[in-house]
Structure formats: structure tokens, C-alpha cells
């Protein structure tokens, strides 16, 4: 009696790779959040005035910048691990919601405390986008083809650092500083990220070394 070829169970149970559109939109979200790291620099005097802090008290501006960077760096490893356990897209959506909430809180702040809290939430949301996006890349491309897409994600983040101050200056030329954060909230609206299969796995761990340079915004000491 002849037997039909037996397929390994692992092949049949292999998770579907995320769609290219999901990876592209996740990279665009990284661009927006990277730009937001620096967009506040030119707007800082206006932000301080808007939350009731005098320009002679610039030292009180530190938490507005430091709150974002603290949230960003503190959540990178935690949310990267969560993306491994719970799936990439759910973590991405959650981070986008946190970032949008922080943007709304900052845009409506009339005191320093809510502005600092809003910037902190923005940092937490931004910090989870990078490892989750790297994991999406790892899920879609095999190791031998990952170098280019990982490089694109890195270039996108660096581009955000360049565009941030320019975007801030452009918005301030035509609108109030609060428009910057309203715009950030609109750009990361939840509907911008479509649903896709959330493959489990080890994507973050597999690309951790390759993506190490993406873990912290460049020039953060200079910003502080």
C-alpha cells in the first residue's frame, strides 16, 4: 500500500506573515513618533507660556522633554517582550492609542502637570512602536533578507529626527503650538493600522542586536 507524502506539522502550523501594508504603516508610525521627540524643541517657549510657566523659569521645562524620553527608554524592553507574547499588531495598536491619548492631553493642557503627563504617555507609546515594528519585519522577511527592511526602519527613524524641528517650525508659522499635538493625535489614529494576523514568536529577540541602534532617540542628551 502506497503512502502519501507526510508534511511536517510545523509547516502546516506556520503563522501567516504580516501584510506589507501593516509593516509600512508601522514604519510611518515610527516616523511620526520620532519626529515628535524633537518637534517640541522650537515650540517649548510657547508651550511653557501656554501652561502658565514664565520664560524666566526655563528649568521647569525639563520634565516636558525628559518625561517623553523617560517613558520611551523605560518601555522599550518591556513592550518588546509583550509584542513577543501577545502579538505585534495588538501592541502596535495599544501604543498608538497611548501616543494619541498623550497628544490629546498635551494639546489641552493648561498647567505644567498635565503637559508632563501627556508627554510621558507619548513616550511610552513611542517606545513600544520600535521593537514591535522590528518584530513585524522579522515575521515577514527571512534572516537573509532582513537587512534592507531593518535599514529602512532605521532610516525612517532618523528621518523623523530631522523632520521634527522642521515640522514644528512649519506648524508654528501658521497655528498655535497646540496644533502640533492635535496633528500628532490625528496622524496616529487607530484606524490607520489595519487588522492583520498577529504571529507569535521570537521576532524581537531575533533582531535585537540588529535593531539596537534604534532603541534610543539620537541626540537625546543634546535635547536635554
TrEMBL record:
Residues 22-224 form the Major facilitator superfamily (MFS) profile domain. It is found in: Cell inner membrane. This is MFS transporter. Residues 205-224 have a biased composition (Basic residues). One of its GO terms (cellular component) is plasma membrane. The chain crosses the membrane at residues 20-41, 61-79, 91-110. It comes from Modestobacter versicolor. It holds the Pfam family MFS_1.
Amino acid at each position: 500500500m502506497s503512502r502519501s507524502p507526510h508534511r511536517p506539522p510545523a509547516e502546516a502550523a506556520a503563522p501567516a506573515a504580516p501584510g506589507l501594508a501593516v509593516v509600512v504603516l508601522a514604519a510611518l508610525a515610527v516616523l511620526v513618533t520620532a519626529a515628535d521627540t524633537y518637534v517640541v524643541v522650537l515650540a517649548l517657549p510657547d508651550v511653557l507660556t501656554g501652561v502658565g510657566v514664565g520664560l524666566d523659569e526655563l528649568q521647569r521645562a525639563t520634565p516636558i522633554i525628559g518625561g517623553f524620553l523617560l517613558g520611551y527608554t523605560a518601555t522599550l524592553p518591556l513592550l518588546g517582550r509583550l509584542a513577543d507574547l501577545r502579538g505585534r499588531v495588538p501592541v502596535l495598536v495599544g501604543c498608538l492609542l497611548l501616543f494619541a491619548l498623550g497628544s490629546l492631553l498635551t494639546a489641552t493642557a493648561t498647567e505644567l502637570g498635565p503637559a508632563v503627563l501627556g508627554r510621558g504617555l507619548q513616550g511610552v507609546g513611542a517606545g513600544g512602536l520600535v521593537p514591535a515594528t522590528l518584530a513585524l519585519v522579522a515575521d515577514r522577511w527571512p534572516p537573509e533578507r532582513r537587512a534592507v527592511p531593518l535599514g529602512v526602519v532605521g532610516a525612517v527613524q532618523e528621518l523623523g529626527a530631522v523632520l521634527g524641528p522642521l515640522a514644528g517650525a512649519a506648524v508654528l508659522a501658521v497655528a498655535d503650538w497646540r496644533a502640533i499635538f492635535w496633528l500628532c493625535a490625528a496622524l496616529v489614529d487607530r484606524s490607520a493600522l489595519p487588522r492583520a494576523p498577529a504571529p507569535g514568536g521570537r521576532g524581537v529577540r531575533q533582531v535585537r542586536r540588529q535593531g539596537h541602534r534604534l532603541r534610543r532617540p539620537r541626540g537625546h542628551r543634546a535635547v536635554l
